[in-house]
Design goal:
9 helices, about 25% strand, four-stranded mixed beta sheet, alpha+beta, 2 domains, about 425 residues
Length: about 425
């Protein structure tokens, strides 16, 4: 028989801590609009965990998995990737993370897993698929691919109580812009609230899909601004979250067809880095310092990030980055965890390999070192390919072929 347990722990930081997610935002948080949380669902001896932060460092993720009471390889840890959260990774995300908050975040993840496991009861799993809410847009190409899937999972105790409601969608949680200085889970907060209202007593999880090239319609460069924008407001997030929640709640649900088999696998691979810059870091720093003297304020802020990168991480050796790809199989429901900011093309290839079975294909799992684009995207350049590694504090971006290696590893875990 399947057993399942849930736990939600508040990780809302105090006002005054550095926020992460926008190079243009340098002032600390003023307070909270909605609570930030860690949410864990344990099924037998496996767990899915989502933390309301921009990303988790892979070293912290490994410690969490090793500290919790479940087998380390049976835990999928993911970040919501809200851009309204605190600095959560050492050396990444454009702001210094507070050490005491990092300790709190790590402890909360461990505790959420252990408490969910301790409270597990006999359960059953139902899955469904909501209609595309038509929210996501490919921000790099007008006709570019999108993962339009809206999988819905309901885990019920045998007495009919809904323990967990899970949904996933591939759209950046970045409705709020750089002018926002309140802690927020962005539109996923609204999705979760509506699912919990529909199923009283349930804990809702929103697990962010592979949205490296998808948001609600603005370019990455449009975020380099502190100007207020009605399309990037809490009211806008409310409307977008409601559309996704409505589509999820309308999904027809059916019991999973995999019996009571619950299993987990993971694999580890090394991804090469490759420099995109044609000049050495010292020369880049000199040129950027000169440009900064007459730059507009927002451009100057970006140049500050780049100068710090050129004088710091850019000088590091290009050692391969250790990637973990993970999978859970909950009685026929597939959960795939990929690190970093993954593009829709990669998720769609995994879905095709899975042959249409119910699946959550997640980005930001285990670690978040930045964007890992498909090989075809390198010819187009742009922020995600040419610049984002500087903000993430990586010595270089990922080499072409990295996304394909992750895709092959994920498919291999399912024997496809």
């Amino acid at each position: 028989m399947i057993s399942a347990g849930v736990c939600c722990i508040d990780i809302t930081p105090p006002a005054g801590l550095a926020m992460s997610g926008f190079g243009a935002r340098t002032e600390p948080a003023l307070g909270a609009h909605d609570p930030l949380t860690v949410r864990a669902v344990v099924v037998n001896d496996t767990a899915l965990v989502v933390a309301d932060v921009l990303g988790l460092h892979e070293q912290m993720s490994r410690r969490i998995r090793e500290r919790c009471g479940l087998p380390a390889h049976k835990v999928v840890l993911s970040a919501l990737h809200t851009h309204g959260g605190p600095a959560s990774m050492v050396g990444r995300g454009g702001a210094e993370a507070d050490p005491s908050y990092l300790d709190r975040l790590e402890a909360a993840c461990v505790s959420a897993i252990d408490r969910a496991a301790a409270g597990a009861v006999p359960a059953r799993i139902l899955t469904g698929h909501g209609a595309d809410p038509d929210v996501a847009r490919n921000r790099r190409h007008a006709d570019g691919p999108l993962d339009r899937s809206l999988p819905v999972v309901r885990i019920e105790a045998l007495d009919g109580r809904v323990l967990a409601a899970i949904t996933s969608y591939a759209c950046h949680p970045v409705v709020l812009g750089a002018d926002n200085r309140l802690w927020t889970a962005d539109y996923p907060h609204v999705v979760r609230a509506q699912l919990e209202a529909a199923w009283p007593g349930a804990m809702a999880i929103f697990a962010t899909g592979c949205c490296g090239d998808a948001n609600t319609g603005h370019s990455a460069q449009a975020s380099i601004s502190l100007a207020a924008n009605r399309s990037r407001s809490f009211a806008a997030a409310e409307g977008i979250g409601a559309r996704i929640a409505d589509a999820a709640l309308a999904a027809a649900m059916q019991p999973v067809d995999g019996g009571t088999t619950v299993m987990a696998r993971d694999c580890h691979l090394s991804l090469d880095l490759a420099r995109r810059e044609s000049l050495p870091p010292q020369e880049l720093a000199r040129l950027w310092r000169g440009e900064r003297l007459q730059a507009e304020p927002m451009r100057a802020l970006m140049l500050d990030h780049w100068i710090r990168w050129a004088e710091g991480p850019a000088c590091d050796d290009l050692a391969p980055w250790p990637a973990r790809v993970s999978m859970l199989d909950w009685a026929g429901l597939a959960i795939v965890g990929l690190p970093g900011e993954i593009f829709a093309e990669t998720a769609l290839a995994i879905r095709m390999a899975l042959g249409g079975r119910p699946a959550l294909v997640l980005g930001f799992a285990e670690g978040n070192p930045g964007y890992i684009p498909p090989a075809a995207e390198y010819a187009f350049g742009g922020y995600e390919v040419d610049e984002a590694h500087r903000y993430y504090g990586m010595p270089a971006g990922f080499a072409a072929g990295s996304a394909e290696a992750l895709c092959a590893a994920a498919c291999g875990l399912f024997g496809r």
